[in-house]
């Protein structure tokens, strides 16, 4: 059996979803060296792409000098992938001419809706002398696209490999067999399989695919890849060795695996309950990955959002719009950072001395200290904040604030603690920024604008002064920085931090200078 | 389908292999509370056992007051397990009478060789009014036991459930089907399946088992369990929900999973390359778990040992016996702790001033500093030390020492760097201790005894003075302590540490007091 199919390792390409396509060069060299000793046929090194907005790393663009270096060190066929949605035939010359003779195969990531467009693109790539791989997403839904199966005949002679991609990680071996049967009845192209591991079925699905005639399999070291990740190269090779007698240099394989240990500890990819739910219900895992890795939303909040998506409830009810009757010239935004709890007694004194000042709680984390004050208080309920609020306020008897949510519809749904239901509103829009609208800070700042703020104090935006900071913390810090900058660009209201902060865009005004 | 089988969650019992059967009480309470809301039928809370040597935690003995407390909080049937090898019929009264009316089912972990003995034990348990579960290990090898299949008929009427345990984690769905067929042709007992996840096949094997008539399935939260772990409860439930319509309270499930997050980060159970190799080759994972979690041997060393086991080479050649011609009255053992490198220049001075002193390198870690001295030097090659030595001595031109290995046969095999091959010996025996013979310290101390030592200095045994220490470090520290104590009990040679140490059994004598 093992002679009948090929293996494509796409660790660098798919692992890039965690590292933003930057990898330490020594790691990549170790990877190449280890793979040289292993029965893997192709290595996919990342994307090629026109310049896109925002920072994306080396292996998203793969400049030819880098590919040339890898080519000189590798005895494998090298592969890059293009995103069909971003690339048209007229871009091919610019994208692919520099890597002719270096790269052996060009793959195309394809939405099944655009199979026709992908075929035109593939013809262009083929003419330039590359092998062509089709990576067609959402295999579990192909039968829902009306022309898809009929159009498969046009793939013959254009694609060298036609990959079925289990995008959601939810297919079972019987589904693999069924899809192979359907595809094979429409085209003679060689088939490939790219399995995701949400349900820990990547191995059995891949072996099943091969038994039913699939000729190329994707895998990655430690399964590194978007969301729950992929079939693990080391698992595939260990099983091919023990069950099918394929000879493996386990020292080389051990080196490849060990090289990625540190990244695994840092990013902790792999399946978990949210990915299992999204996988088994064919829900997209892009959002789930963001919720799990960046926003540290609780499993329960994520699960609730996923359940709602699944039931198409979307848990998204329209709430009354937030339309404050009177303006609040002075605002204090209290965020979740340490300074807000460390200086809580002084802040309490400050708001008592300024009872016309409105308090906006960007997070409920430090809110309980303020339960008895007379100032107007507004709570930002984003993500799982409603649940956190319920934990912070074990007793809502004292609660006299109001709650605001982002505009309808909300990705994470609408969760409002029952006891504050009548006092909860949604913003009509978040319009001072085009990014990160789904964050505490965006909601708090927009609320302040809606209130007609003329001066905004903030506390609890510390910018993670403790080092080392985690990558999650860095992401959130960068987000806040971008939001403060966008606010600064679109509004002439100044933001003052009451405690020294690492956000340099905030003006500093000592809390203690403002107390009587 | 979901009405046709039961689920037994054995997180506390099987997770105890990582925590030594101690779990924070709040965690256990959270677990019980979450399980109350989930469609799980039985909870296995751990072992019951006569007192065994060494420390084993609460859930290995399960005193009745604890089980009574859990019983009052749980709406599930509760289970404990006995190790057949440690329990005879005459122990049953003492072990089980105190938990009558609290525990619903008693399981027995059974080596297939002792099926007959287990049946007698089960009859006793049954008479006391408990449900009885058989957990029979090594299902992949049952056909190698001559009377096993024939004896299965005696299980009828004695066992309520007869579990097939995939001890190695190496069976595939087709093997599950085959074994079920064999067992069913010999007995009418209800079947169970306990799957290990080395090859990420626990889910598909369990679902396959159920489709072929198995009536109870084991799982654990996050798959927590010995070695690579088990079928994940959350994965089973997520799939039963999405594919078979079983109603699941995902908030409760999320709470159960989140409760074990910290333990997962601490112990990092789950599959990895060594477990994949042991699983797919039916090699016992007890040793692998020790190598991976306690001894931090490199993947490559472990893989090499496993490959050798698999090929029955065992990589175990007989080496010449270590029979020193002359005695060495004074010995210095240099271990891997920080003090040995921090005080290296003074130690170098000390050995130069005492050229008749023999140096024993318990680890090669700090050895390179001593490459030019004239003293006799002995290197202890245990586990992967031969490979470490090759890294430390990138040039063996200077090497004039000899190497010693533990007695034949060696679990981790025989790895000797090529250039020291003619200068390498094995000890005839390690006899001053009955435990931890497979360690650097045991080998070094035995070597010192073989040399006829009258006074032994040690350095680099610091006892992990930095806090917090990891559980790996604690295990090694405990081992060394036990070895020093065993040495102290069997020999009147004193051990002096040259630098202050946390091992209180070592006498202190300042390195600096011994220098001219």
Can you give a write-up of this model?
The structure is a homodimer of 516-residue chains. With 516 residues, the first copy, chain A, is of the alpha/beta class. Chain A has two domains: 2-267, Aldolase class I (TIM Barrel); 330-514, Rossmann fold (3-Layer(aba) Sandwich), CATH 3.40.50. Helix content of chain A is 37%, strand content 14%. The first copy, chain A, contains 20 helices and 16 strands. Chain A has helices at residues 11-19, 25-36, 58-61, 64-73, 92-96, 115-127, 148-151, 173-184, 202-211, 233-244, 250-259, 261-267, 273-280, 285-293, 299-310, 338-342, 344-352, 385-392, 440-450, 471-490, and strands spanning 6-9, 42-47, 77-83, 105-110, 131-136, 161-165, 190-194, 216-219, 330-334, 358-361, 377-380, 402-405, 424-426, 455-459, 494-497, 507-508. In chain A, the strands form two sheets. In chain A, strands 1-2-3-4-5-6-7-8 form an eight-stranded parallel beta barrel. An eight-stranded parallel β-sheet of chain A has the order 13-12-11-10-9-14-15-16, covered by helices on one side. In chain A, strand 5 (131-136), helix 7 (148-151) and strand 6 (161-165) form a beta-alpha-beta unit. In chain A, helix 2 (25-36) packs antiparallel against helix 11 (250-259), helix 8 runs parallel beside helix 9 and helix 13 packs antiparallel against helix 14 (285-293). The radius of gyration of chain A is 26 Å and the shape is elongated. The mean pLDDT of chain A is 89. Chains A and B meet through helix 9, helix 10, helix 11, helix 13 and helix 15 of A and helix 9, helix 10, helix 11, helix 13 and helix 15 of B. Chains A, B: It catalyses: pyruvate + acetyl-CoA + H2O = (3R)-citramalate + CoA + H(+). Chains A, B: Keywords: Pyruvate. Chains A, B: Residues 5-254 form the Pyruvate carboxyltransferase domain.
């Amino acid at each position: 059996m093992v002679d009948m199919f090929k293996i494509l390792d796409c660790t660098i390409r798919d692992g890039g979803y965690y590292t933003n396509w930057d990898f330490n060069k020594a790691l990549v060299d170790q990877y190449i060296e280890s793979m040289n000793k292993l029965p893997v046929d192709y290595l996919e090194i990342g994307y090629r792409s026109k310049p896109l907005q925002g920072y994306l790393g080396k292996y998203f663009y793969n400049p030819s000098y880098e590919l040339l270096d890898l080519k000189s060190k590798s005895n494998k066929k090298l592969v890059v992938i293009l995103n069909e949605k971003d690339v048209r035939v007229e871009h091919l010359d610019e994208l692919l001419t520099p890597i002719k003779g270096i790269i052996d195969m060009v793959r195309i990531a394809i939405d099944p809706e655009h199979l026709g467009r992908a075929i035109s693109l593939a013809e262009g790539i083929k003419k330039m002398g590359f092998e062509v791989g089709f990576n067609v997403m959402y295999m579990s839904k192909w039968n829902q696209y009306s022309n898809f199966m009929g159009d498969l005949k046009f793939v013959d002679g254009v694609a060298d490999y036609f990959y079925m991609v289990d995008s959601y990680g939810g297919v079972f071996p019987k589904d693999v067999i069924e899809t192979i049967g359907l595809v094979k009845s429409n085209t003679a192209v060689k088939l490939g399989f790219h399995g995701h591991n949400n349900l820990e079925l990547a191995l059995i699905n891949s072996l099943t695919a091969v038994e039913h005639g699939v000729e190329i399999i994707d895998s990655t070291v430690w399964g590194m890849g978007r969301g729950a990740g992929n079939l693990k190269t080391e698992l595939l090779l260990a099983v091919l060795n023990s069950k099918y007698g394929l000879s493996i240099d386990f020292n080389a394989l051990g080196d490849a695996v060990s090289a990625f240990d540190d990244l695994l500890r840092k990013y902790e990819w792999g399946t978990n309950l949210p990915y299992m739910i999204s996988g088994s219900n064919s829900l997209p895992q892009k959002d789930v990955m963001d919720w799990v890795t960046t926003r540290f939303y609780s499993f329960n909040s994520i699960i609730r959002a996923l359940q709602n998506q699944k039931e198409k409830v979307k848990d998204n009810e329209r709430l009354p719009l937030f339309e404050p009757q009177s303006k609040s010239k002075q605002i204090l935004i209290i965020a979740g950072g340490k300074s807000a709890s460390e200086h809580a007694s002084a802040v309490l004194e400050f708001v008592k001395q300024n009872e016309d000042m409105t308090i906006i709680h960007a997070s409920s984390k430090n809110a309980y200290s303020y339960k008895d004050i007379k100032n107007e208080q507004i709570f930002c309920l984003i993500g799982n904040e409603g649940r956190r609020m319920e934990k912070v306020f074990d007793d809502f008897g004292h609660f006299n604030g109001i709650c605001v949510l982002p505009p309808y519809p909300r990705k994470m749904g609408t969760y409002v603690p029952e006891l504050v239901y009548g006092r909860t509103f949604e913003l009509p829009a978040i319009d001072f920024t085009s990014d990160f609208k789904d964050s505490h800070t965006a909601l708090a700042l927009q609320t302040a604008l809606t209130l007609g703020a003329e001066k905004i104090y903030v506390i609890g935006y510390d910018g993670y002064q403790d080092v080392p900071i985690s990558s999650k913390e860095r992401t959130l810090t960068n987000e806040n920085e971008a939001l403060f900058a966008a606010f600064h660009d679109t509004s002439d209201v100044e933001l003052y931090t009451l405690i020294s902060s690492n956000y340099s865009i905030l003006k500093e005004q000592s809390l203690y200078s403002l107390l009587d």
